[in-house]
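Input (structure):
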């Protein structure tokens, strides 16, 4: 698993999704996002993850067009924001995202957060978009097990992906097991803990052993654990470094060491308690 940057996992509907993607959260619209997406595509990334609320879909679209990479080689994800949830408003939000990205279809469309009383209706709209082939796969983001159980109770299409905060200090074991059992691919946002805790002695020691950076060790841990991962950076050297994780493999012992670092520590909001 994970021998090359274009290696993919197969989602529950047969669609191939790269193990490694490029995230653009907090990357500014305009030249910053255009340049960083172009750097990523040049480095070999083929999966780009954005969202309506990031405000940079137009720049992502422009970078894709100017990159010269064929559309069918790319895997583009975007997300419906909380204020747009609901049936009709989700359909409208999707068209806005698609138009900003300048794409005929989206590869993966996600519900950004489980807004109480809204996400099931939103999911019906997602299912409609999927049936109309406007999107190749649909999924959720920031859903706990109980949110997924609620959705699975009466959905027609099982989510293909659940994208959640996941890293060595928040390894989400219960959720990962639940998703494995249900055929839902888990995907990590903030896989690198927003650059915090890179001085953790265990991570530093493992990195030294492989002659890799702590970031590369964490991203490799993701892939070997069957987790799709989307590190974000605006620095070309870092974008390249994050992609350079396909020429080594962690031992089971080192994976277990990283697994043991879990403290259930979040750097982002808790899906059971967010106010946006």
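Output (sequence):
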């Amino acid at each position: 698993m994970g021998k090359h940057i274009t290696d993919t996992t197969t989602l529950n509907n047969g669609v191939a999704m790269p193990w490694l993607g490029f995230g653009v959260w907090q990357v500014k619209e305009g030249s910053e996002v255009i340049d960083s997406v172009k750097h990523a595509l040049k480095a070999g990334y083929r999966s780009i993850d954005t969202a309506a609320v990031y405000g940079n879909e137009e720049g992502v679209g422009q970078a894709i067009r100017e990159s010269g990479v064929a559309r069918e080689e790319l895997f583009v994800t975007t997300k419906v924001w909380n204020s747009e949830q609901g049936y009709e408003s989700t359909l409208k939000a999707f068209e806005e995202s698609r138009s900003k990205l300048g794409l005929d279809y989206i590869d993966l469309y996600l519900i950004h957060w489980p807004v109480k009383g809204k996400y099931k209706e939103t999911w019906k709209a997602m299912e409609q978009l999927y049936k109309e082939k406007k999107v190749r796969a649909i999924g959720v983001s920031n859903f706990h097990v109980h949110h997924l159980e609620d959705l699975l109770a009466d959905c027609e299409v099982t989510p293909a992906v659940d994208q959640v905060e996941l890293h060595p200090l928040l390894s989400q074991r219960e959720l990962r097991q639940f998703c494995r059992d249900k055929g839902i691919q888990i995907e990590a946002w903030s896989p690198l803990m927003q650059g915090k805790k890179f001085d953790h002695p265990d991570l530093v020691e493992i990195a030294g052993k492989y002659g890799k950076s702590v970031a590369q060790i964490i991203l490799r841990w993701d892939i070997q654990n069957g987790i799709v991962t989307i590190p974000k950076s605006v620095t070309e050297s870092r974008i390249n470094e994050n992609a350079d994780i396909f020429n080594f493999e962690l031992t089971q012992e080192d994976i277990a060491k990283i697994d043991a670092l879990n403290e259930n520590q979040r750097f982002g909001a808790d899906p059971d308690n967010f106010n946006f």
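Notes: The mean pLDDT is 96. The chain has one domain: 8-259.
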